[in-house]
Write a structure and sequence with these properties.
heterotetramer, A mainly alpha, B mainly alpha, C mainly alpha, D mainly alpha, A: mainly alpha, two-stranded antiparallel ribbon, 5 strands, globular, B: mainly alpha, 0% strand
Chain lengths: 662, 217, 490, 303
């Protein structure tokens, strides 16, 4: 626990130091980055120790605020989430240090570093807090720090707008959490998680708590339909912050949901179905809307919705397994979900950093103005390719491993279960498959439009590879993605304590047998991945040998007879995605505008398409607008006449007297 | 001169005159009369001439303040703000009188249902006080001029004061004095304000003083 | 002790009216404020004093309110020096329409400030409801000229409404006192006395209906002054037109004093076994205030009115907290402290922004962060504080109140409470953050910079409200619990 | 493990091009032509492997990596399918998922390579490929789901090995549905009629062929090999479901399996001669249909 506290201290201290050093360019960022890196290492040590089998470190200090106690604990589940945080945070901050100095060197960066420190520390505290009040404080510190980071470029209107949407969403979510924890406190007799006695909570109460948790935490996680803030806020933030938010911050929602599930009595079936339904909805919705985007970071943000959906799907499968008494299903589901939390942190972090590098090098994030960066930014391109393959769940990378586990859970449920369980399993499996297929489509689009072919704009043509400080984190993350894919069984073994904790809390038998089953399967998967690498290598060597000494000429692309192809003739990202977007028109409701070419000598034509989020456009905005209009009419009350005001007084008096006094 | 019921009936009539009064001067005079009646009433309620010294003190004090000083303030404000003397009320005079009648009925009914700890000097005391109260409130909400609102406020205070007489025990002297002082200061400051209002707006119609509002027009 | 507390500001006020030199007067103001603060601190150390039957006595609740008032006044006094030092003497163009206006005499301003303190002190120490009434009315009279410091017709209108509406309200409260006395004169030991101690002692003998009626009258009467909707009508005008330092005192100190009047009545009803009746009434009024405040907070174009309506909302929160009883009472009292500190800070900062931009429009003020960095940072922090976000004090107090509602099984109250809080947050965050961010509008070039004399006071308040969110000192905790016990909560 | 699976693996490797030959021969027969010899595939490979190559100046290493990764992925996929009842070299719980996602990997790199050329034609093909295969994915996975549920085991080798004509007798409907669904996926994934026309000459209507327009020499050889292997892998699945001969005599089973594969080739030829290519807009419906069939099958199995 000492190491963990030291981590918190260093991380926040770095931010504070950066504020104090103020405009001294040489120090301000360095101080903060050093603090975050050093702190994260300490934290990583603490977390890994727990996963490796050390007893759970706890801290319980009296804290004089009402109902509060400063109690922390790093149990295996917390440790697992902490690992994701403390792996991503230092890399993101190293990246951010250089990025900010290059992009915003002439501005004061103290604030952004302070809030970065607060964000990381807040997340760490959320993962370890064992008291509701402490949890809520950490939660809000995290959320608000994130707000100020999102609005870092607040002189741009759309950024302010995005930050605003985020702030409202997170605040409303927190309101649900306050209700949730206080209700848990009443039902469980304490606001300390370790002393809550919720095992005997009546079904309605437990159900209410579960729903509150799903709404409150789902808002932070970005589950459909509470996701509207996410595709706004993540693109607005500086890229390393987007990486932190998408990679870790939204996982606090998953963590909170899991933590509450571990406290609640054993789940009824509908919890599992609800989570599976929301998971599939989020997964499909996320990937479909991602397909329709032109903005690289917005596309990635929607993929966060998709991956949160996959994780939730895993949790749902797990709950279903618990309810149906199928330990293998439960274990596979939870293992997949937890591993996907870590994996998504890695490859989504990697992708956002890559997107930041692209934006930094070209000055644009519009897919239809990029292209050909693979040759100009080889490192960024290669690492982005790894990230894209990983998030599409392709072997031999980590994304495949976690999705494999969730699939296994669904298939095991389908083989053993019947009735509703079977239906849910089919839905889950089919949903995952479709999500996977669409993800491939979406990321071939993203990678192809950005890094392949010819530049579609001059800025893309002038792009140069980014500095080493920006490349290093991307390479590290790419390596981690590959590593988890190839070392899957050992990774699962590392998670075994966390899984055991989950199983214990949910009243399952000791899960060693199931873990062993999954581990052997993963061993085969890794073997297959190695075989794949071997085969690819062999093919590559063969090709090299064959081409040795042969003529390898270079020429223009074969344009089917057309001699003068120009970059503007390339297939754009929009046109690439058009068939699918068109297929899912009823969901996406993409809005197009433009003038098609006509006549034998067509005049310059134009085409533009935009895909606003229906939940935002058709659900939230109308409601808010309606409320505002209503209030506007009610303001008549305060219309300036003192006689009227006195009349209110008299009326209140008489009404209360006649109504209350009898 | 200390016949309680007569005084009360006097009060009652004054209220009606106030409701019907169309000119500022009249209402000022009436409220002065009301003050005088109240001070007499105070004495009467404490056995007239043989009332203890503190009652005399209070009665005289309030009498002087309400029957002499306030009218003086208000007239002065009136003079400085030389405005048209008509009331221009929201509610017409006949209508006001009708309202007064209903208010009287209401207060009689209410008073009849109010349990009292002990015998009161007169059965009319409570109803009249309530009536005065209601009339004060009514004047406050139904009249335009800042001055009439002060008058309404005074009537309201008089009503409260009058109800106070129905209490078996009197409030301690110091409290009574404090109350009196407060009301005195209040009216004093209101007078000053009216003066400023007339200077700023060239009128003392409060309904034109409604620039501070949230109504989104 | 109590005599000193009362006389120091009163006499200083008289002196201030007589003094010629502005600098001396300002020095006197600060000196008196600090003396008062010192005396209050001493009173805190010695704890509640005086025989229970005394008219003037510091009981835990009064002590709490007095402490808040004194701290806020001291801070405001220092701010006032900086504020007055930069006010132009000569008539100057009005910010909203093209007329000239001048300030009232500074002597009157300072003097009334000190009288204001004296009267508020009297409110906190009076145990006799009659004296309490006198004191509350006196606060109105002492503060009216303060609101009228800037002599243009808007402030005049505001002052007139303040004066008349509050006086009428207070008159109703006086009737309430008489009803209470009436209720007290029933039964064998019926002495119509209004001394709190005796009322509570003889509470069982009080006549129920007179008592209830009395509470309604007192609630409406003092509620007018406290700003409970729909009696709040004077409040936004007065807060918006008064000089910001005065707004801070009105919102942070005066409203508490009026609230104290209601609390006293609530004590009596609680002792008489009518606690639930009074509680429900308070909850209704409180929720209604929160709702109405939200209506006016959303899309509010004037940031001082915004803060004013937020005060209405928070008075509603206090009412709900007291009304819920039990643990929520502690929360309400804690919230009283938090709100005074946070709102005081915000009004002082609003003064700085107003001075720099010469506009109260949330739509036109932009880029405060660039012009007044410290003010901007505090403004954002204050927003988070006042809307109940951690790590600031109000979060804890509101959390305690909600917990009280949930533990007391008031689902509807809980839902509405959280709903209105969220609405107020949304309504306040949008304009206030927009003011801090972005770049100043070209058509509205701000002038000036953070001056320590007008920023330091806000910093002090900000730090203390932050501290209250992280760690409630034991002495304060003890005082709050004692006060909660007196009011009849756990 | 014994040598049989490895032998069969190598055999399949060697015979894959033959399957293509069978198909073309069948079509030629129906068209009344002599057609290319059965071994044309081998001749093509031999020719291509002897050639040099041309690279577009637009392309990057991704273009060169495309065929290599594709062939590698499909080669491993081949090691996952059981042939003629004997388990595959790589057989483990969930192996079919690896298979499905290896195809996805191959697709990913084929599409990437196509986009790397910067040609509108190849982009068009890539776009269609992405769309159709995304929609084919649920069908494939649900077929596997049906198989695993019918056998109650998560391994392809086991669940296919468990099949037999007895199984067909017991619940024919289910297996028929699965076979049908698998056949559709088989056609779609291998760019056959009615989804795609491998022999068309109009780039605008191509899907798979147009994506590899720019590959030449050894690269093209790898691409061709990969597509033949893919044909074989999915074909083996169809055959495994449709013709589950389990005599227990490995040689016999193997022989029957080979025969069945060639028959499958003939069947494809027949389909391609009998049917025309669907309009691109209709293809999704076909693919969704396969998914529905498989889901129906799964539901029908009384677990």
């Amino acid at each position: 626990m000492g190491a963990f506290l030291a981590a918190l201290g260093l991380i926040v201290g770095g931010g504070v130091a950066s504020v104090l050093t103020g405009r001294r360019r040489s120090w301000r960022s360095r101080a903060a980055v050093t603090g975050i890196v050093a702190g994260s290492l300490c934290g990583l040590v603490a977390a890994v120790r727990v996963l490796a089998g050390a007893p759970t470190p706890t801290l319980h200090v009296p804290w004089r605020v009402p109902y509060g106690s400063f109690s922390l604990a790093i149990d295996p589940v917390s440790a697992l989430f902490l690992v994701a945080l403390f792996v991503l945070a230092p890399l993101a901050s190293v990246y951010g240090g250089r990025y900010l100095e290059e992009e915003h060197g002439d501005e004061s960066l103290g604030g952004v570093w302070l809030f970065t420190g607060l964000l990381v520390a807040g997340i760490a505290l959320v993962f370890t807090a064992r008291n509701a009040v402490l949890f809520l404080v950490a939660w809000e510190v995290m959320s608000i720090a994130a707000y100020f980071l999102v609005t870092f470029e607040h002189y741009r209107d759309e950024v302010r707008e995005a930050g605003w949407t985020y702030l409202v969403a997170t605040h409303l979510g927190t309101a649900f959490l306050i209700a949730l924890f206080l209700l848990m406190g009443r039902a469980g007799g304490s606001l300390d998680f370790d002393e809550m006695q919720l095992g005997h909570a009546s079904p309605p109460v437990a159900g209410l708590l579960f729903v509150l948790a799903v709404v409150g935490f789902g808002t932070k996680a970005g589950l459909v339909p509470f996701h509207v803030w996410l595709p706004e806020a993540h693109p607005a933030a500086p890229s390393h912050v987007s990486a932190l938010m998408s990679g870790v911050m939204i996982k606090t929602g998953i963590y909170g949901l899991l933590r509450v599930l571990l406290l609640l009595p054993s789940p009824p079936a509908w919890w599992g179905w609800l989570l599976i339904a929301m998971g599939v909805a989020s997964g499909l919705g996320g990937v479909l809307f991602a397909l329709a985007q032109h903005d690289l970071k917005r596309l990635l943000a929607y993929h966060s919705v998709e991956n949160i959906g996959i994780i939730t799907l895993g949790l749902g499968v797990g709950l279903l397994g618990v309810h149906a008494g199928l330990p293998l299903v439960a274990l596979a589901g939870f293992a997949g979900a937890l591993l996907h939390v870590l994996n998504h942190a890695l490859f989504k972090g990697l992708l956002f950093l890559g997107a930041g590098a692209v934006a930094h090098a070209t000055g644009t994030r519009d897919l239809d103005h990029l292209g050909g960066l693979g040759k100009r930014m080889p490192w960024t391109g290669a690492t982005f390719l790894v990230g894209a393959a990983a998030i599409s769940g392709l072997p031999p990378l980590n994304g495949f491993v976690s999705e494999f586990l969730i699939y296994t859970g669904a298939f095991a449920a389908a083989t053993a279960g019947r009735g509703a369980v079977l239906a849910a399993a089919i839905a889950g499996a089919a949903g995952l498959a479709l999500i996977g297929g669409l993800a491939v489509a979406c990321f071939t689009k993203a990678f192809g439009a950005v890094f392949l072919g010819e530049p579609r704009g001059t800025s893309a043509g002038r792009a140069r590879e980014v500095a080493a400080a920006l490349r290093l984190p991307m390479v590290a993350l790419a390596a981690a993605c590959a590593g988890i894919g190839l070392a899957a069984p050992w990774v699962l073994a590392g998670m075994s304590r966390a899984l055991a904790q989950v199983a214990r809390a949910l009243g399952l038998p000791a899960p060693d047998a199931q873990i062993e089953t999954l581990r052997s399967a993963l061993a085969w998967v890794s073997l297959g991945s190695l075989a794949l690498l071997a085969a690819v290598a062999a093919a590559a060597v063969a090709r090299r040998l064959l081409l040795r000494g042969r003529t390898v000429a270079a020429g223009p692309t074969w344009g089917c007879g057309y001699a003068a192809p120009s970059p503007r003739m390339q297939y754009t990202a929009s046109s690439f995605a058009q068939p699918l977007v068109d297929l899912f028109r009823p969901v996406l409701r993409t809005e197009t505008a433009g003038t098609p070419p006509s006549g034998p000598f067509p005049a310059p034509a134009s085409f533009a398409s935009a895909t606003p989020d229906p939940a935002d456009r058709r659900l939230y905005r109308p409601v808010f607008a309606g409320v505002a209009a209503l209030f506007g009419r009610l303001r008549w009350v305060q219309q300036g006449r003192i006689q009227l005001y006195l009349l209110y007084l008299v009326a209140t008096l008489l009404i209360l007297l006649l109504w209350k006094v009898r | 001169m200390f016949e309680i019921n007569t005084l009360l009936v006097g009060l009652l009539l004054v209220n009606f005159v106030l409701l019907g009064a169309s000119r500022l001067g009249t209402s000022v005079r009436q409220v002065a009369a009301q003050g005088a009646l109240l001070s007499l009433l105070t004495l009467a309620e404490h056995a007239g001439w043989s009332a203890p010294w503190r009652v005399w003190l209070l009665a005289l004090g309030s009498g002087v303040v309400k029957a002499v000083v306030f009218p003086y303030f208000l007239r002065r404000a009136l003079r400085e703000a030389d405005v048209r003397r008509e009331m221009e009320p929201y509610v017409g005079f006949t209508a006001s009188v009708l309202v007064g009648v209903t208010a009287l009925a209401a207060s009689l009914w209410l008073a009849s249902r109010l349990p009292l700890p002990g015998p009161v000097a007169s059965p009319l005391l409570v109803p009249v006080s309530l009536f005065t109260l209601l009339v004060g409130l009514f004047l406050l909400v139904s009249r335009r001029k800042a001055l009439t609102q002060v008058v309404g406020y005074l009537v309201l205070e008089n009503g409260v004061f009058c109800f106070g007489l129905a209490l078996p025990e009197d409030a301690p002297l110091s409290v009574e004095v404090g109350i009196l002082l407060d009301i005195f200061a209040a009216v004093f400051i209101m007078g000053i304000m009216i003066y400023h209002i007339s200077r700023e707006f060239d009128h003392i119609d409060t309904d034109r003083m409604s620039s501070l509002r949230d109504e989104t027009t | 002790m109590i005599a000193a507390l009362l006389l120091a500001p009163a006499l200083a006020g008289v002196v201030a009216l007589l003094l010629r030199s502005d600098r001396l007067r300002r020095a006197l103001l600060v000196a008196t404020a600090l003396t008062h603060l010192g005396l209050v601190a001493a009173a805190w150390r010695t704890g509640p004093a005086g025989p229970p039957a005394a008219w003037l006595r510091l009981d835990p609740v009064g002590m709490l309110v007095l402490g808040v008032t004194s701290v806020l006044f001291a801070v405001a006094a220092i701010y006032a020096v900086g504020y007055l030092a930069h006010e132009e003497r000569t008539p100057r163009p009005d910010i909203e329409e093209d007329t000239l206006f001048a300030n009232g005499p500074e002597a009157v301003f300072t003097g009334c400030l000190l009288f204001f303190l004296a009267t508020m002190t009297l409110v906190t120490v009076s145990q006799n409801l009659g004296v309490l009434w006198v004191a509350v009315e006196a606060t109105t009279l002492a503060s009216a000229p303060l609101i009228f410091f800037h002599r243009h017709h808007r402030s005049l209108e505001a002052t007139w409404k303040y004066l008349l509406i509050c006086s009428v309200g207070i008159a109703v409260a006086l009737l309430g006192n008489f009803f209470l006395a009436m209720a007290a004169s029933f039964g064998p030991s019926g002495s119509g006395s209004l001394v709190l101690h005796e009322l509570i002692a003889g509470a069982p003998g009080l006549h129920a209906r007179w008592l209830k009626a009395a509470f309604v009258l007192l609630l409406v009467g003092y509620g007018t002054k406290m700003g409970l909707a729909p009696l709040h009508t004077w409040l936004p005008d007065a807060h918006a037109e008064a000089p910001s330092v005065v707004s801070a005192l009105l919102s942070g100190a005066l409203l508490n004093c009026a609230f104290l009047g209601i609390v006293r009545a609530y004590q009596v009803l609680g002792a008489a076994g009518q606690g639930r009746f009074a509680g429900d009434l308070l909850i209704d009024m409180g929720l209604f205030s929160m709702a109405l405040a939200a209506v006016f907070i959303v899309a509010q174009p004037d940031f001082k009115r915004l803060l004013a309506y937020s005060s209405v909302e928070h008075m509603g929160i206090l009412a709900v907290g007291i009304g819920l009883g039990g643990g929520a009472v502690f929360g309400a009292l804690l919230h009283l402290v938090n709100h005074s500190l946070a709102k005081g800070m915000l009004f002082l900062l609003a003064g700085n922004i107003l001075a720099a931009y010469r506009s109260k429009s949330t739509a036109r003020v932009r880029g405060v962060g660039a012009v007044l960095p410290v003010t901007a940072a505090l403004w954002a922090a204050g927003l988070l504080a006042i809307t109940g976000s951690p790590p600031f004090g109000p979060f804890l107090s509101e959390l305690v109140i909600v917990k009280g509602a949930i533990d007391g099984r008031h689902p509807v109250v809980t839902v509405l409470f959280l709903l209105f809080l969220a609405a107020a947050f949304i309504g306040m965050a949008r304009p206030m953050l927009a003011m801090v961010q972005g770049e100043p509008r070209p058509e509205l070039p701000p002038s000036g910079h953070d001056r320590w004399l007008t920023v330091a006071p806000a910093v002090v308040l900000g730090l203390s409200v932050l501290l209250l969110g992280l760690w409630i000192p034991s002495w304060l905790d003890g005082a709050l619990r004692a006060a909660a016990r007196v009011v009849g909560g756990g | 493990m014994d040598a049989a699976p490895v032998l069969r693996y190598l055999l399949a490797f060697a015979l894959a091009p033959l399957l293509g030959g069978v198909i073309t021969k069948t079509k030629a027969f129906f068209a009344g032509r002599t057609g290319a010899p059965l071994l044309q595939g081998y001749f093509d490979l031999a020719k291509l492997l002897r050639k040099g190559t041309v690279y577009s100046t637009t392309t990057s290493w991704v273009f060169r990596a495309g065929p290599v990764v594709t062939v590698g992925a499909v080669a491993v996929a081949l090691a996952l399918v059981p042939m003629g009842g004997t388990p595959a070299p790589l057989a483990f719980p969930g192996d079919f998922l690896l298979l499905a996602y290896l195809f996805a990997l191959a697709r990913f790199f084929t599409i990437a390579a196509a986009l790397d050329t910067g040609s509108a034609f190849e982009g068009m093909g890539a776009s269609r490929e992405a769309q159709f295969s995304a929609l084919a994915e649920p069908g494939l996975v649900l077929c596997f789901l049906a198989l695993t549920r019918s056998a109650g085991d998560l391994s392809l080798s086991v669940s296919l090995g468990a099949l037999s004509f007895a199984a067909w007798r017991s619940h024919a409907a289910v297996l028929a549905l699965v076979a049908a669904a698998l056949f559709i996926v088989f056609l779609a994934e291998n760019a056959r009629i009615p989804v795609d026309d491998p022999t068309t000459h109009l780039e605008l209507t191509m899907i798979h062929e147009v994506m590899v327009l720019d590959h030449g020499g050894p690269d093209l050889a790898l691409v061709e090999a990969a597509s033949w292997l893919k044909l074989w892998v999915l074909g083996a699945l169809v055959v495994g479901v449709a013709v589950p001969v389990r005599t227990g005599i490995p040689a016999l089973d193997g022989g029957v399996f080979l025969a069945a594969m060639l028959l499958l080739g003939v069947a494809v030829g027949v389909v391609e001669s009998a049917m025309a290519r669907l309009r691109l807009l209709r293809v999704p419906q076909l693919l969704v249909a396969s998914g529905v069939l498989a889901a129906l099958a799964t539901a029908l199995i009384s677990g």
